[in-house]
Amino acid sequence: MRDPHRKVTLGALELTVLEQLWEGGPAHVAAMHAAVGEPRGLARNTIQSTLERLARKRLADRRKVGRAYEYRARVSRSAWLSRALRNLIDEVPGVDPPLLLSTFVDLVERADAATLEELEALVRKRREEKEGGP
Fold first, then answer.
1. Residues with Cβ within 8 Å of residue 5, at least 6 apart in sequence
2. Of 30, 115, 122, 21, whose CA–CA distance to 72 is shortest?
3. Would the pTM of this model clear 0.85, i.e. be above it?
4. In this prediction, what percent of the chain has a pLDDT beyond 90?
5. Which CATH number applies to 12-73: 3.30.930.10, 3.10.350.10, 3.50.50.60, 1.10.10.10?
6. Residue 14 main-chain phi, psi, to 5 deg
């Protein structure tokens, strides 16, 4: 069984196609080619190969609909982002949690009030979980 947290590297086109699956939902090769391939001058086969690579990497699923395959994202955008950030942190030697948090807080400074409230709620929830609270 594959590790769900294993590092998966995506090329620029794979990421673009996955983004299109998140935004537009399930799609056949023809629709994906129209949305992603044609604007970039790419062949339909290139888009089909990209979708197949995403399926092999277990980031997309495919099912037969009529005579063609329909592809859908297998992971959510948030799950992918969480995995990618975890992998990035694991790659940086000597990651110091206080430094990481300090950098994160510097980025959060730009957030609006609603985002800051969400962050505070997440911190509260995590504290309660650790303390065995409500």
1. 83, 86, 87
2. 21
3. no
4. 55
5. 1.10.10.10
6. -60, -45
